[in-house]
Amino acid sequence: MNKEIVVLIGGPSSGKTTLIEALKEKGHTCYPEVSREVIREAQEQGIEQLFLEKPLLFSELLLEGRKRQFKEALNEEANIVFLDRGIPDVLAYMHYIGDSYPAFFDKACQDHKYSAIFVLPPWKEIYVSDAERYENYEQAVLIHEHLMETYKNYGYSITEVPKDTVENRVDFIMKHLVK
Is-above-0.85 flag for pTM? Predict the structure, then answer.
């Protein structure tokens, strides 16, 4: 079996982290969202919202973290590795705020190809804000649209995970991977 690097994408508070945790509990190899770590480190240095104050620096830190995750995933013993967001997410967020970025961002997306992309659609009933998530629901919907467009621009086929229980969402993903 070939190595499968599977990415879960979606706007803020669509259930990605919960799904990653459920996959981990079932024994799957999973990598967490990089941005929460970057945000916390910036807040410890007195920068409340690095993404808003220095979007390019924030995005460069995310890009490096996600490239590192990709390389680590390739070296995992597991045949399937799940990632909470992928490299094209960085570009989607830059598009969302209307900011430009250096050409190496695009090259990173071209050089690091994922096996499968699953999107969790915006889900108002489960939407929650927290210390690292500043977007409101309407902004989350716009981010979702940018994510879809960006991943499609890189040639990915995207499978939408239905709004359902966590268990059913896990089953849905696994059934689509084991074809």
Answer: yes
